[in-house]
Amino acid sequence: MWPDAVTRLSRHALTMFPPPFKAKVVEPISLRSPEARRSALADAGYNTFLLRSEDVFIDLLTDSGTSAVSQEQRAAMELGDEAYAGSRSFFRLEQAVRDLYGFRHVIPTHQGRGAEHLLARLLVRPGQLVPSNLYFTTSRAHVELAGGVWVDVAVPEACDPTDAHPFKGNIDLPALVRVLREAERDGIAFVRQEACVNMAGGQPFSIANLRAVRAVTREQGVPLILDATRISENAVFIKDREPGWNDEPLPALIRAIAAESDGAIFSSKKDHFVPIGGVLAVNDDRLAERARELVVVYEGFPHYGGLAGHDMEALAQGIRESADERTVRHYVGQVAYLGRLLADAGVPIVVPVGAHGVFLDAKRFLPQIPQEQFPAQALAAAVYLAGGVRSMERGIVSGQHGEEPYDGLELVRLTLPRRVYGEEHLRYVAETIISLLDHAEKIPGLRMAYAPEYLRFFQARFEPLAPFPDPATWATVRGATAPRRRSARAEGRSRPRAADRRRTSA
Ligand code: P71
């Protein structure tokens, strides 16, 4: 059977199973000269968000809105009903969400943060807590703008890049119980559990953990809201890693996950293969009514929520495709393949490799750069210089809160858009990064020259503390899969690998 063969290949071999699709329309890309890359990077203030996409060769900034749409999505777009109210396209979207996830009420939004905004305004009162498995930048920002307080209750393994715990997206139950017990009456707005925790490397939760969280929140009368943005990949990881779910068809498993919650927000720009779109889905009638009262203020009429009719058609079709196991397996298999190429060459990455990208561990890649000099930002800049590959900082620039000290994860995310790049692209990316290993000690730290007030990582500007090494001098890249001595950087782990001690856990 195909899924079995795909699982075998993506888990055990350096060969990927062919994708269950082929290209029909292509977009040209080209590699700028080392000199042009150097000047583009300086113009962008050493922030990869500020590069022009035409200066980028392989764009691994994000999987958000960057997937290839299918011919079925394009065909569906022709049927878009652009009526302001009562649009046929809305009712098709509503049906698609109900069919796959089972939520009763569907409120479309322009993207994920639109849904997060509504949710925070609906559920968060000043001073209330939102316990969650780690933070996501926009999710935390909306809770805080509503006066709430974010509380991290992720399992501690989530913040150790060398710990191969299979479910680093789990919530630390004793920690959650403590927070719930110590909170005042009505002190908790909601508990948030994110599928394939983005900031920890795309790490899944187990159903056993979700069910335990559900039991605790029910007992306390606190809503449990999923960030279901990457629920499809989380479901595949559960099939592969959690006993009892191996034979479950993917759509049924996705529905079983959603059924353990009171509602969900989705950024549809990921699993749903659309360039724009998001969803707030809830079961509670009163909450949905209040959401529809609010959506008209911030997004649009409840029958479009900031989307065009054709966007809703593409989204409805994308939701159906997001439960296609071959497609999801191919995607996580691609990510795993890139991870294997890098790990085998001694590049320090987050393990296990997660849903949507390979995360470089900048603390081990660039041990000479102290965290106040933004090692992940510097590494992302160097990766661009080395080969025109665009990645995203996920370290102190994204994670630090005001002036508070930060010693958390310091990662560079190489994120794969869905259905876009092929094996040759991934090998090129691996070779680019492996070539950088030999020049790592020459990469300088950065100084932040401009920091916006909100979500600073998007638009901050930096200056290098010394010149970056010249990529023209290391342009010869070695074979990504050629045998290579493991680098001392990769070996220099701060702690023993917990993977060797523990293989499974709820
Ligand atoms: C990603 C993004 C897009 C992004 C957002 C913020 C900083 C950098 C990049 C967006 C997510 C997400 C999760 C789990 C909500 C949103 C917001 N991710 N939850 O990973 O991953 O959705 O972008 O559609 O507004 O590059 P939105």
Strand content: 5-15%
Q: How much helix, percentage-wise, in residues? A: 25-40%
Q: Got a strand count? A: 14
Mean pLDDT: 92
What profile does the largest beta sheet have? Answer: 5 strands, mixed
Alpha-carbon distance between the two ends: 28 Å
Radius of gyration: 22 Å
Number of helices: 18
Overview of the structural elements:
With 506 residues, this protein is of the alpha/beta class. 38% of the residues lie in helices and 11% in strands. The chain has 18 helices and 14 strands. Helix 5 (112-123) runs parallel beside helix 6 (137-145) and helix 9 packs across helix 10. The protein is globular, with a radius of gyration of 22 Å. Bound molecules: ligand P71.
List the helices and strands and how they pair.
Elements: H1 2-12, H2 34-43, E1 58-59, H3 71-77, H4 88-101, E2 105-109, H5 112-123, E3 129-132, H6 137-145, E4 149-152, H7 173-182, E5 191-194, H8 207-220, E6 224-227, H9 231-241, H10 250-258, E7 263-267, E8 278-282, H11 285-298, H12 309-321, H13 325-344, E9 357-361, H14 362-365, H15 375-387, E10 389-390, E11 392-394, H16 396-399, E12 411-415, H17 423-437, E13 446-450, E14 461-464, H18 488-491
Parallel strand pairs: 1-10, 3-4, 5-6, 6-7
Antiparallel strand pairs: 2-8, 7-8, 9-12, 11-12, 13-14
Helix pairs in contact: 1-13, 2-15, 3-12, 4-12, 5-6, 5-11, 7-8, 9-10, 13-17, 15-17
Tags for this entry?
single chain, 506 residues, alpha/beta, five-stranded mixed beta sheet, three-stranded antiparallel beta sheet, 18 helices, 14 strands, 38% helix, disordered C terminus, binds ligand P71
